[in-house]
Amino acid sequence: MTSVARLLFFTLLLSSFVACSNVSDSYSFQGEAYGTTWQIKFFDDQDLLDKDELERKVKEELTRIDSIFSLYDEDSTISKINKNKILSWNNLPGYEDFKELSKISNEVVNDSSGSYEVFLNGKWDFNSIAKGYAVDRLCDILESYNIKNYMVEIGGEIRFSGKKPDAFWKFAIIDPSLENKIFDEFSTSIPLSIATSGNYRNPGHIVDPVLNISVNSNLLSVSVIDETSTAKADAWATALFANEKDWFYLARDKKIAAFFIFEEEGKINSSASEKWIELLK
């Protein structure tokens, strides 16, 4: 699966990812999937935790989701649907996943006044939400093992839960005008998901679903926080970026926690919605 440029990444500022001996042990898994990288980091003090089994389940789930939503796999469920090779969805592999993504997508479609769409030119395309959804599914696996303090990241889409033994989770937003330079950084004491969309590294990647043309505006990136769903944060980041003129007002009116980086009179500026400020205060 591909996606728009992802700008946001986590950073463990002030302390490295090292276990505090009197609190819990630290673990990490990482790899490649969906044309990008993924990683999981968590703290846990369960003596009987089977790390190998957990890692295997994580990788199996990544493969399963790819087999459903990948547009680059001719045998994926979504590819078969788009080619009209399936008449009934009820018995599809991943039918429940389709229902869940469709539900989240439809909510954003309706609330964004058409700035977001997953059915374009007669084809289904969940690339703008699938990575966030995969993050949520991996979090479910961790929770099933009673793991509460973790970070899950796929291609820049992130969910935090709990905290590190010695500090809150911290994350940074990359400056869209400069490679690998931090534009701003934040910390969180509550569980939340973060997703970022932008077009400057992959021009034309985000399409206005109303006009069916590539987005071209002074907005460089949008980061969105959602307290419960990475998939929803992912979808809203795309929706706000695709809304070329009213992105700030849309976030304000719908109470979306959003952080915008934009160009104005030759300078790079930023603005945060009230909900963003409220969650990260």
What does this molecule look like?
- With 281 residues, the protein is of the alpha+beta class.
- Helices cover 31% and strands 29% of the residues.
- The protein has one domain: ApbE-like domains (T-fold).
- Helix 1 packs antiparallel against helix 4 and helix 3 (95-111) crosses helix 5 (230-242).
- The longest helix has 19 residues, at 51-69.
- It is globular, with a radius of gyration of 19 Å.
- Residues 1-23 and 201-213 have low confidence and may be disordered.
Estimated share of beta-strand residues = 25-35%
Strand order of the largest sheet: 2-3-6-7-10-13-14-15
| Overall body shape | globular
Please, how many helices? 7
Q: Give a count of the beta strands, DSSP E runs of length 2 or more.
A: 15
Name the helix and strand elements from N-terminus to C-terminus, one letter apiece.
EEEHHHEEHEEEEEEEEHHEEH
Give structural attributes.
single chain; 281 residues; alpha+beta; T-fold; 8-stranded antiparallel β-sheet; 3-stranded antiparallel β-sheet; 15 strands; 31% helix; disordered N terminus
Summarize the model shown.
With 281 residues, the chain is of the alpha+beta class. The protein has helices at 51-69, 77-82, 95-111, 127-144, 230-242, 247-253, 274-279; strands at residues 8-10, 25-33, 36-44, 119-120, 123-124, 149-154, 157-161, 169-174, 182-188, 192-198, 207-208, 213-214, 219-226, 257-264, 267-272. Helix 4 runs antiparallel to helix 5.
Strand-helix topology:
Blueprint: E1 8-10, E2 25-33, E3 36-44, H1 51-69, H2 77-82, H3 95-111, E4 119-120, E5 123-124, H4 127-144, E6 149-154, E7 157-161, E8 169-174, E9 182-188, E10 192-198, E11 207-208, E12 213-214, E13 219-226, H5 230-242, H6 247-253, E14 257-264, E15 267-272, H7 274-279
Antiparallel strand pairs: 1-8, 2-3, 3-6, 4-5, 6-7, 7-10, 8-9, 10-13, 11-12, 13-14, 14-15
Helix pairs in contact: 1-4, 3-5, 4-5
